[in-house]
Amino acid sequence: MIPSSSVKVVVVGAGLAGLSAASTLMKAGFQHIQVLEAMSRPGGRVHTTRPFGQDVIELGANWIHGQEGNPLFQLAQEQGLLLEESGSAKTMCLPGSVTPRDYFFEESGRKLPMDQVDQVCAFFSKLTSRAFSSELDPKHSTQSLGGYLDQEFAQSLQATSKVGQRLFEWCKRSECTDEASSSLYEVSAVQLCHYVALEGGFFNSLGPGGYQALVDTLLDSLPPGTVLCDRPVRSIRWALEGESHAHPVSVLCQAGQCFTADHVIVTVPLGFLKENGAAMFEPALPTSKASAIERLGFGTVDKIYLRFEKRFWPDDCAGIQLVWDAGPEDEKVYQHSQSEGGAWRDTWYKKICGFDTVARHPTVLCGWITGREAQHMETLDERMVGEVCVRLLRSFTGWSVEEPAQVLMSKWWSEPFVRGSYTYPPPGVDAVREHNALAAPLPQPSDAGHSQEKVHFFA
Ligand SMILES: Cc1cc2nc3c(=O)[nH]c(=O)nc-3n(C[C@H](O)[C@H](O)[C@H](O)COP(=O)(O)OP(=O)(O)OC[C@H]3O[C@@H](n4cnc5c(N)ncnc54)[C@H](O)[C@@H]3O)c2cc1C
Questions:
Q1: Does the annotation place 326 within a ligand binding site?
Q2: Considering the domain boundaries, does residue 387 fall inside one?
Q3: pLDDT in tens, 220-243
Q4: pLDDT at 423 over 50
Q5: Same structural domain for residues 222 and 339?
Q6: What is the CATH number of the domain that holds 193?
Q7: Residue 114: what pLDDT?
Q8: What is the ipTM of this complex?
Q9: Cα–Cα distance list, 123 to 147, 168, 319 (Å)
Q10: From ligand 1's centre to the CA of 104, what distance in Å?
Q11: Where do the coiled-coil regions begin and end (predicted)?
Q12: How far is CA 215 from CA 47, 204, 225, 458, in A?
């Protein structure tokens, strides 16, 4: 057995998974570890910025979901990085004496009564909870989440009113943010029960250093030089044999630099693997892995930050939610727009759920957008996106809304080393099986029967 101190390990990707893997190996006595990161910064889908002054703006991950058994929560707690009052509510802004909550507006400019909003949202939440807790009737086993929700909603009292229907469509659109999907008709209803919600508050926020503080903690645990940025990996040869190969793995960077190793840990996003996985590995990945990469969904969620000179919303307003008369989540509207090719592009902005207030930024709003519309938005210029958002805010609220002083949006789909935001289970896909196939280590061909895996994946 080779002592761990002489084993060479290459980790591809310096997101939370890659950095955690490197840090854990270091603590276990491994010394020759090289982390290769394609981008010019570590962190990956954690991207903490400070575009509006000292306080942070998160372009990627924002909250730590769940507490018990969550290594990120544990690390953040040990390091004193958590915001104390965070936990169960998603509220992004906490003005002193009032209890903030979302304002819902219709296209006509009418503010919807809260009891009506609460009733529909509570009913929606009851239906999704059933899906998450595997209490779905077997008749829904092959259905999409959208199909199941529509069917159940159609039989409810709320479905008899126009407002009820419109609010229900808003709930579906908002759920697309959690699922990173273009539409809930792309998401499996029965597979959601495999999502394990950890005990403890769901929306745990980080303190003034934001998510980057966690990345920095992991970086600090590694010797200088362990992480190399601007090193996109082009190919991984993972079954080298014979005397000329002292190490069975060789990792080649785009610029030609080559790293040999005993093991490689691959933590690149599923979106990147979908585009490049077939060409990246030699020998090619086994069918189980290739098919997991193809079958699992990887959708786009983007944020649009608008900074205004003055706040124009009331103290108790935690967010401005947009309730359209029709679509885009209505199944008929969705399918019609698909059959018409690019027609949905003209109304891409209908996919913005609304605008939330932002912690520590009293004059900033954050809009959320998902799916193909988010991908389309990424092709537009920020000024134009800002103008569209202001038009929406003016027409829905009737308030006087000035042009934003700054607009900043994420572009996760356009990022060549990410290509999306996170994973979802499409209908008909066994998500647990595919995740396990993706995460399983690859053995050396000649090592069959031994536990000498050379390539390790983080799903
Ligand atoms: C908008 C958004 C909001 C989110 N909100 C939350 C949230 O609130 N809470 C939460 O828990 N999660 C959230 N997430 C998800 C969370 O950010 C990710 O699950 C997590 O950061 C993934 O970490 P990772 O290390 O697996 O992957 P990544 O962070 O994607 O790291 C992979 C790294 O691999 C690098 N890479 C890719 N290709 C190559 C290559 N060829 N060579 C070298 N390096 C390569 C990439 O550049 C990247 O740095 C959000 C994500 C997004 C996009």
A1: no
A2: yes
A3: 999 999 999 999 999 999 987 766
A4: yes
A5: no
A6: 3.90.660.10
A7: 93
A8: 0.99
A9: 16, 9, 21
A10: 32
A11: none
A12: 10, 16, 16, 17
Residue keyed to tokens 């709003």: 365
Tell me which residue range forms the domain holding 276.
4-44+68-81+208-297+425-457
Instruction: Give CA–CA dist 235/251, Å, rounded.
Output: 6
19 Cα–ligand 1 center, Å = 11
Distance of CA 6 to the CA centre of its chain: 37
Residues 225 and 241 in one domain: yes
Q: How far apart are CA 341 and CA 339, in angstroms?
A: 5
Name the least confident of 100-109, 291-300, 389-398, 408-417: 100-109
The pLDDT of residue 96: 39
What pLDDT, in 10s, does the model give residues 326-338? 877 667 666 666 6
Residue 61, domain member (yes or no): no
Same domain, residue pair 247 and 192 = no
Residues 114 and 162 in one domain: yes
* 37 in a labelled binding site: yes
Question: What's the DSSP call for residue 324?
Answer: -
Say whether pLDDT at 445 is over 60.
no
87 is a domain residue: no
pLDDT at 339 (0 to 100): 65
Q: Which CATH number do you get for residue 17?
A: 3.50.50.60
Do the beta carbons of residue 360 and residue 202 sit within 8 Å?
no
Same domain, 311 and 344: yes
Burial of 350 from C-beta contacts in 10 A (0-12 / 13-18 / 19+):
buried
How many domains would you assign to the chain?
2
Which of 376 and 453 is assigned the larger pLDDT? 376
Q: Is 304 in the pocket of ligand 1 (CB under 6 A)?
A: no
- Note whether residue 319 is domain-resident: yes
Best residue for ligand 1 mutational test, from 20, 45, 410 (most atoms within 8 Å of Cβ) = 45
